[in-house]
Write a structure and sequence with these properties.
The complex is a heterodimer of chains A (226) and B (613).
Chain A (H helix, E strand, L loop, with lengths): L1 H11 L6 H7 L11 H27 L14 H25 L5 H28 L8 H33 L9 H27 L2 H11 L1
Helix pairs in contact in A: 3-6, 3-7, 4-5, 4-7, 5-6, 6-7
Chain B lengths: L1 H23 L25 H5 L5 H31 L9 H37 L7 H20 L29 H30 L12 H32 L10 E2 L2 E2 L7 H35 L6 H14 L15 H13 L1 H15 L8 H24 L1 H7 L3 H31 L1 E2 L2 H27 L19 H31 L1 E2 L66
Antiparallel strand pairs in B: 1-2, 3-4
Classes of the chains: A mainly alpha (226), B mainly alpha (613).
Chain lengths: 226, 613
């Protein structure tokens, strides 16, 4: 990070019109970062998603009704299970990444398929949890607490579905390749892996918020912004 | 990088002679260095049919023109709505069909159209698409297919928005800020299908823009041509780039608030809906916060001002430099100011909410940040003036628009300093002073840059020069007309005339404002009509205009060095250009001509000395 900041300030102070600087600038290849366009795209999408989810979190903190039991959602253990599934997805993606780094390709296809399967399982789990919530009389319009929960999980689910769309495209290409050719897809797989890690981070942020925040903390936050 | 250069200089020079030989016809000396291409050539999808070439096209330039034309269409709709509003305000009852509901619907649609669907789409979608690949020396955007989807998503968003004129109840009339709870409650015009279509349209716009913005950012960061460092980029690109970053971070707030309000309307959630008693009956809503919507909306809404302004700042900097034949004064400072304004724009949003009932300490904080943002903005104004200072100024149509912009922006900016202070803002809030301020600073000022940019780049897009005489008529009618509208409007605000009123002639303090209101309306009709001079000029030029040839303004930036004029798909023929300097080497002592293009190697201008800046 400090290197990035140094580089940024270094860049912004360049005097491109000076002869000495021009000799250096002429050697520039035209790229700012040593990243593939796929990874660059994923980083930017994750930046946008961070803004989006941060705003939803803020709205959530702002809107929880005072009488609400803020730990209600964690009691049926379902969200714990889904969190575990997301951890597993990240674990298998990290295995894929390690294999790519070491250029060991024999397990990559299998692990990519596991990633997709677990992700669909996560989505399925979310739908079951929604059904259970509705059966217990907690609908999207019941109060702001449940409204925020539904909207967060819906957007997180959409985010995941977007990832699964690209997972489908990449995995269909990977499955057609012979093992030794899989490395050609390294940039796409790395970008996907980054995307999935982010999905876990956002989920954990939300999960921790549900777990850690108690009414006293929420009241304090409200005094700040009301 | 320089170490690598020293080690490999000889081999690089051998390759550079191959690249440059055809261009200069001279043997490059020791000072010419061209890095071998490391970024692979982009594979372009070439159109095979009329539909692929002009409808579902993947060429950023065509997409830019599509964005431009669609945005202009929405702008014309917005203009007609403003005429109808002014007709009512200046001459109440003259438009017999106009009810109060219609008036509010026109106000709302005018505001949203002009800010989002016209100015944002035109600057980022129009100029962004056309200019980014050309100015950074790329063949196209990095994801052309996604770029095409971006335009069509925008097109659908516009179609959905326009559809709201034709649904029962008409478009929403809740004001362009769409404040809940009234926006979705019965009694507000368009509170049924109208508001829903507006929210859906905004969501589509944000999704579409995100696809485009992704392209702009990655193309600028990762797909520049050799030698094009970030600090050699023209300021136009810096402005569009920073505005895109802002949009990518601010539009999620609009998306989230649109989704939440849609759910409030459709599914009965209460994100923004407090407990409401209507005619003695408690509605089903409760527990939500309208202030939360205001925070979300303005977290988008204030950066939105800079999403429009920053590309305008960048473009006008380039236009002034080219037409004053002078390097831009304080290039680095201009870049810092663009980046600084962009960053600060996320810390000023609540100055739109001084009278909302939020914590007063917030007002103190946001007044301070608002005044701080005036510092980099003022730096830019000084630098534009110092660029003009002792320049070889060409008083052509482009320059007139640039000068008009500087004056208008300073005017609008100064009234912004009034409104940024809580104690001054509170009495002026919701008066015509505010309307005059924001129209000057983010309506007329950016519009002047758009006009300057059209006159400047039209020869590149169409290969013909727009008529100068008509251009000057267009400028003076718009400039004088705009001041005839907004100077008196400030006065109306000072005497307390409130905005958003359908009719107010019964108010005793309005008697002195009646004549002014009529005058303002007449001026508004004139300014609107004056824009048709441009449309006539464009049509006339396309038919019989003087051919522009290559680089008619003798500019330095890469867009003027394409293989053909107008540029073909792929922009630069067989070889991408190689950049050796920034875009502002004008009137350099010792040079044969008063401009040195970015592609000129050092050996061709060995005895020149660029001014320090």
């Amino acid at each position: 990070m400090s290197n990035f900041i140094k580089k940024l300030f270094g860049t912004l102070t360049e005097k491109s019109w000076e002869r000495e600087r021009a000799a250096i600038d002429d050697a520039h290849e035209g790229k700012t970062f040593d990243l593939s366009v796929q990874t660059s795209a994923v980083i930017i999408i994750l930046g946008i998603a961070t803004a989006l989810f941060s705003l939803i979190f803020t709205g959530y903190i702002y809107s929880i009704p005072p009488e609400q039991d803020t730990r209600y959602l964690l009691k049926p253990n379902f969200l714990w299970l889904n969190t575990l599934i997301l951890f597993c997805v990240t674990f298998f993606f990290s295995k894929v990444n390690k294999d790519l780094e070491k250029k060991i390709t024999k397990n990559i296809k299998k692990n990519i398929l596991i990633v997709g399967g677990l992700s669909y399982l996560f989505l399925f789990g979310q739908i079951i949890f929604w059904t259970l919530l509705m059966k217990s009389g907690n609908f999207v319009s019941t109060n702001s607490y449940f409204s925020s929960f539904y909207i967060f999980t819906a957007l997180h689910g959409l985010h995941l579905l977007g990832g699964l769309f690209f997972w489908g495209k990449v995995s269909s290409r990977v499955l057609k390749l012979r093992n030794e050719k899989i490395l050609e897809e390294e940039k796409n797989i790395s970008a996907l892996s980054l995307y999935w890690t982010y999905l876990l981070i956002v989920w954990l942020a939300f999960f921790l918020m549900i777990y850690i925040f108690n009414d006293a903390f929420i009241d304090w936050c409200k005094t700040l912004i009301s | 990088m320089s170490e690598e250069y020293d080690n490999n200089k000889t081999s690089y020079q051998a390759q550079s002679s191959e690249v440059l030989g055809g261009a200069s016809g001279t043997t490059p000396s020791d000072m010419d260095y061209v890095r071998p291409a490391e970024i692979p050539e982009q594979e372009l999808y070439h159109a095979h049919s009329f539909i692929e070439k002009w409808v579902f096209c993947q060429d950023a330039k065509v997409i830019g023109v599509q964005y431009f034309l669609t945005a202009v269409f929405t702008g014309v709709v917005g203009l007609i709505l403003s005429w109808l509003m002014r007709l009512q305000l200046g001459f109440p009852g003259l438009a017999g069909f106009m009810t109060a509901e219609h008036y509010y619907q026109f106000v709302t649609m005018h505001g949203m159209i002009m800010v989002v669907y016209f100015l944002t789409a035109l600057f980022l979608g129009g100029f962004g698409n056309y200019l980014i690949p050309l100015m950074v020396g790329a063949r196209d955007m990095v994801f052309p297919y996604v770029n095409m989807l971006s335009f069509w998503m925008f097109f659908v968003a516009v179609a959905v928005l326009m559809a709201s004129f034709f649904v029962p109840g008409g478009p929403t009339g809740s004001g362009w800020t769409l404040y809940p709870p009234q926006a979705i409650l019965e009694g507000t015009p368009g509170s049924g299908a109208g508001i829903l279509l507006m929210l859906i349209s905004l969501s589509l716009f944000v999704i579409g823009f995100t696809m485009g913005g992704l392209n702009y950012l990655i193309t600028v960061l990762q797909a520049r041509t050799r030698g094009m460092t970030l600090m050699r980029l023209p300021l136009t690109i810096w402005g569009i780039f920073t505005a895109t970053v802002l949009a990518m971070l601010a539009f999620p707030a609009l998306l989230v608030s649109s989704i939440m309000m849609t759910l409030d309307k459709v599914l009965g959630t209460s994100f923004f809906m407090p407990t409401i008693i209507k005619a003695g009956e408690v509605l089903e809503y409760g527990g939500g916060s309208p202030i939360l919507f205001q925070h979300l909306f303005w977290f988008f809404g204030h950066p939105e001002v800079y999403i429009v302004a920053l590309p305008a700042f960048g473009i006008v900097s380039d236009l002034i430099s080219v037409h004053a034949r002078k390097n831009i004064f304080g290039y680095r400072m201009m870049v810092w100011a663009i980046v600084g304004i962009g960053a600060l724009s996320f810390f000023v949003w609540a100055h739109h909410m001084y009278v909302s009932g939020m914590n007063p300490w917030f007002g103190f904080f946001f007044a301070t940040t608002t005044l701080i943002i005036a510092v980099p903005t003022a730096m830019k104004v000084y630098n534009w003036i110092l660029t003009l200072w002792r320049g070889n100024i060409r008083i052509n149509t482009v320059m007139l628009w640039c000068l008009g912009f500087i004056v208008t922006f300073v005017n609008g900016g100064i009234t912004g300093i009034f409104l940024g202070n809580v104690s001054v803002d509170v009495p002026l809030s919701d008066t015509y002073f505010v309307v005059a301020h924001f129209h000057m600073v983010m309506g007329i000022a950016p519009l002047m840059v758009i006009m300057g940019a059209i006159y400047h780049w039209f020869p590149l897009v169409a290969g013909r020069m727009l008529d100068e005489k008509l251009g000057k008529w267009h400028f003076w009618a718009t400039f004088l007309g705009a001041y005839s509208i907004y100077f008196p409007m400030h006065y109306l605000g000072f005497i307390g005339v409130p905005r958003r009123y359908f009719e107010m002639y019964d108010s005793p303090y309005m008697t002195s404002g009646v004549g002014l209101n009529e005058f303002i309306s007449l001026a508004a009709f004139l300014v609107g009509a004056a824009q048709f001079i441009l449309i006539y000029n464009i049509i006339k030029t396309l038919k019989t205009g003087k051919p522009a040839g290559k680089n008619p303004w003798q500019a330095n930036s890469l867009e003027w060095f394409t293989s053909t004029v107008p540029p073909e798909h792929g922009n630069f023929g067989d070889r991408l250009p190689v950049v050796h300097r920034w875009a502002y080497d004008y009137s350099v002592p010792g040079a044969k001509e008063d401009f040195i293009p970015q592609t000129t190697p050092p050996s061709e201008v060995a005895n020149t000395e660029v001014e320090k800046t």
